[in-house]
Amino acid sequence: MAQFTLYNKHNAPPSNDITRVDCEHVPLCSANDVQLRFLVPDDLTEVRQLCQEWFPIDYPLSWYEDITSSTRFFALAAVYNLAIIGLIVAEIKPYRNVNKEDKGILPDSMGRTADVGYILSLGVHRSHRRNGIGSLLLDALMNHLTTVERHSVKAIFLHTLTTNQPAIFFYEKRRFTLHSFLPYYYNIRGKGKDGFTYVNYINGGHPPWTLLYPFSKCFYFIACLFAVLLVALLTLCHTDHIKHYASKVRHTSTLCAWMGSRVQQVVRWFYHKLLMRFNFIE
Description:
The chain crosses the membrane at residues 73-90, 218-236. By secondary structure, the chain is of the alpha+beta class.
């Protein structure tokens, strides 16, 4: 596992053009070569340049000043050969202070006293992707928020472009679930772009209960039961012909369960928005 230290950049060994190697030309051999540290003010120029390369959003200079100097943010960098090759920026805040579009993440009763973690940015240098750096940074944040001192944090959420398939796959693989669809949430180069909200519940947190929840659970149970029966059928069957078609049906049941979970998320979002539209809930 990579080392997680809090050293200040001023204490790092001096670099020069001969010994410091450009990240674009050196492959990352092992995550053990990576060191994690918090951002410091001297990182501002480097971080700004990286974010401009990684993200389509133009952050103001004040944002970079905040994440490199303020303790309000959990701003962690992955360093390799004295260069930043990845970073994660998150903020912990009371649930009551989240924006209107994110109010449905927690139940009202839980949200009165709960905190949430919001991931503002997570990026890795193009030449070092698929080396586990993003997971390393995300795991560091998760470990930070699942301590006893942070038990009040009940969810971690983020926004991403609907077209950012690599990010969507990355977060879904790490137990983040789709919460809501945000039409024209982003303004990128003067054009409105749709976004998704993804949530991971921690420390006993859970989504609001709705009338759809029992039905979705029932559907999922039936799909799982169907899959178990097919596995039993595969065990009893000895002919290759029957095994072939039984495996096809088993794959179909898995696909149905996945589709059911997606339908549940979309309908839950629509149901919540419909209630808000007619002022049935605050």
